[in-house]
Write a structure and sequence with these properties.
This protein is mainly α and about 180 residues long. It contains 8 helices and 2 strands, in the order E-E-H-H-H-H-H-H-H-H. It folds into 2 domains: about 1-105, no CATH class; about 110-180, no CATH class. A two-stranded antiparallel sheet has the order 1-2. Pfam families: Retrotran_gag_2 (PF14223). This is DUF4219 domain-containing protein.
Length: about 180
C-alpha cells in the first residue's frame, strides 16, 4: 500500500519492509532535492564573538534547511501508518525520525544474526518456486547479514553450501585426471 503525494508514490512502512521502505524514502528525498537534511544537523544560529568556524551559520541557510527538513518530514510521515506514528512524534527533524524508526525496525542483536544464518543454511528451492525467486530470497538474506556486519567469503560459501559431495568428488576427480595426463 502507498500514498500518492504530489504525484509521488510514497510507500507505507510495515513491520517487515523497513529496509526497502527506507531505500524508497531516501530515493524520494533525493528526487525532491532534500536528502541532505537526513545527513546533517540543524545549522546553529549566527553567533557573534565566536572564532570556531563550525558554529556560526547564515540565518538564510538555516531557513532553507528548515524548509527542506519540513518537506522531508512530510514524506516520512506520509509513509507511516497511524500505529507507527508514536515512534517519531518526539523527533524534531527528519534525521531523528529516520533514526527512531531504524532503532525500532532494525534488529542488530546476535540472535538476529543467528536467525539469518539459520535461514540461509536452511534455504531450499521449492518445486513450485522459480529460480529467480529463490535467488532473490538468497540475496535478501545475504544483504541483511552484511547490513548487520557479517562478512561472507562468496567462493567458500558457494562451495560449502551449494555443491553436494558427489559434485565435489566429481570436481576432485576432474582435477586429478587433468594433472595426470
Amino acid at each position: 500500500m502507498s500514498v500518492v503525494m504530489a504525484n509521488i508514490n510514497v510507500p507505507i512502512l510495515t513491520a517487515n519492509n523497513y529496509n526497502n521502505w527506507c531505500f524508497r524514502i531516501i530515493a524520494i528525498l533525493k528526487k525532491e532535492q532534500c536528502e541532505n537534511v537526513i545527513d546533517e544537523d540543524i545549522p546553529k544560529e549566527q553567533c557573534e564573538n565566536v572564532i570556531d568556524e563550525d558554529i556560526p551559520t547564515d540565518p538564510a541557510k538555516k531557513k532553507e534547511f528548515m524548509i527542506q527538513d519540513a518537506k522531508a518530514q512530510s514524506f516520512t510521515i506520509q509513509g507511516i501508518s497511524d500505529k507507527h506514528l508514536d515512534i517519531i512524534k518526539d523527533s524534531k527533524t527528519s534525521k531523528e525520525q529516520l533514526k527512531a524508526l531504524k532503532d525500532v525496525f532494525v534488529r542488530t542483536s546476535s540472535f538476529t544474526k543467528l536467525t539469518l544464518w539459520r535461514k540461509l543454511f536452511n534455504l531450499k528451492s521449492g518445486t513450485n518456486e522459480s529460480l529467480e525467486d529463490h535467488f532473490l530470497k538468497f540475496d535478501t538474506i545475504i544483504r541483511d547479514l552484511k547490513d548487520l556486519g557479517s562478512t561472507i567469503d562468496d567462493q567458500l560459501f558457494i562451495e560449502d553450501n551449494f555443491f553436494n559431495d558427489s559434485v565435489a568428488n566429481f570436481r576432485i576427480s576432474c582435477k586429478f585426471f587433468s594433472h595426470k595426463s
